[in-house]
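[recover] target loaded
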């Protein structure tokens, strides 16, 4: 092969020498002719190998079941490899063409070597991108930060490529280059601070399984509330529910607090925890006439009868004077309303009855007594969850008046009196 290349590029110089063109003129004319020949041959080699490699890879991709080779085709790996082959031909030809131009032989030889290294990195990048896309389609790796790993590998390769390029340009040995890099490591750390922090954070996020692609997270500091769509070395991308995108520095995932809703989504229900404020001055004891009227409400009818029998028995046993309602044991409209809501929730079809179901009273506030609903929706989808919660509280707002209770509302400042 080497002898064939020599014969191709030496014929012009030998012919010119025979025609007595002179040493210098023959060398320059031969150089110009050889550059043209080199360009034509390199382009023909590129076309040939591009056709062969691309067609071969397409045929293999169609005949195999694996998707990886399809991704190699879509990432144009074969085309970049086809660029590399004529470059190797040029690299072998430069010393022969520039045999009489020692200085330029050294310069162009270095440039070709540098270009080969950079092109090789680009080929590796296309292969890694194909591997990344392939792993993302695999269920086992779909939630892993594959982008971070690919970026770390590429950064390491680029560092080695940079060392090689500098050593070639300035004729410095690799050992000297590494020593120099050690001396300026503080500057390197300062320049690549975010990258280093992102790399460490990516490793910790992956090892501790803090965030996966597809997780719903809430990060108040950055205004993020949506699904994680990408985790890479520097950032975590979140598609918010309003279809905007928030970019969060990866190291913030370990330095700041955020909420990951994965546990809720993987559980059997989504929590409903909301309260209303009842006016304290509307809470009172119920007399027999009021209890008789409330027995018409089916959900608490049997409860009232059972509870009233227990209360009457207690009061009679202890000879309680019921001429004053506060004496002895009594039922309140608030307590009966809590029982009503509990019964209503236990029969509501959208709730998970195997999880906690409470209607509870909280610590009184200056605005009233909080009545909190604490239960779990069996449907965890956002729109259905909101519908279930609204449906429950619609019923609470509409039914509270039957128990002679009132919900606290801030004064509007407007008078109800109209002239």
């Amino acid at each position: 092969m080497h002898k064939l290349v020599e014969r191709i590029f030496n014929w012009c110089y030998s012919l010119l020498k025979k025609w007595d063109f002179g040493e210098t003129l023959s060398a320059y004319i031969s150089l110009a002719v050889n550059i043209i020949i080199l360009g034509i041959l390199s382009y023909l080699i590129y076309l040939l190998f591009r056709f062969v490699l691309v067609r071969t890879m397409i045929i293999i991709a169609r005949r195999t079941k694996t998707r990886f080779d399809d991704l190699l085709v879509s990432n144009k790996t074969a085309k970049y490899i086809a660029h590399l082959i004529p470059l190797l031909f040029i690299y072998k030809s430069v010393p022969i063409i520039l045999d009489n131009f020692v200085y330029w032989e050294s310069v162009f030889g270095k440039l070709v070597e540098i270009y080969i290294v950079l092109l090789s990195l680009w080929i590796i990048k296309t292969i890694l991108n194909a591997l990344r896309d392939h792993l993302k389609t695999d269920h086992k790796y779909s939630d892993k930060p594959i982008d971070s790993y690919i970026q770390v590998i590429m950064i390491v390769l680029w560092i080695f490529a940079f060392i090689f390029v500098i050593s070639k340009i300035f004729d410095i040995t690799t050992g000297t280059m590494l020593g120099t890099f050690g001396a300026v490591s503080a500057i390197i750390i300062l320049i690549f601070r975010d990258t280093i922090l992102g790399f460490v954070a990516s490793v910790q996020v992956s090892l501790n399984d803090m965030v996966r692609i597809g997780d719903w997270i809430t990060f108040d500091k950055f205004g993020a509330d949506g699904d994680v769509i990408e985790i890479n070395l520097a950032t975590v991308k979140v598609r918010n529910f309003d279809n905007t995108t928030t970019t969060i520095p990866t190291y913030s995932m370990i330095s700041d607090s955020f909420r990951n809703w994965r546990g809720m989504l993987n559980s059997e229900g989504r929590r409903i925890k909301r309260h209303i404020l009842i006016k304290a001055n509307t809470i009172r004891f119920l007399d027999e006439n009021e209890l008789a009227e409330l027995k018409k409400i089916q959900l608490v009818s049997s409860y009232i009868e059972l509870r009233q029998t227990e209360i009457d028995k207690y009061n009679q046993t202890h000879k309680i004077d019921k001429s004053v309602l506060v004496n002895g044991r009594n039922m309140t409209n608030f307590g009966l309303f809590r029982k009503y809501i509990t019964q209503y929730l236990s029969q509501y079809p959208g709730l998970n009855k195997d999880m906690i179901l409470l209607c509870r009273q909280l610590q009184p506030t200056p605005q009233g007594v909080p009545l909190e609903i604490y239960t779990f929706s069996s449907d965890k989808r956002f729109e259905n969850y909101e519908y279930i919660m609204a449906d429950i509280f619609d019923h609470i707002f509409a039914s509270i008046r039957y128990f002679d209770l009132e919900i606290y509302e801030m004064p509007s400042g407007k008078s109800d009196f109209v002239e």
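[recover] notes: Confidence is low (pLDDT under 50) at residues 415-419.
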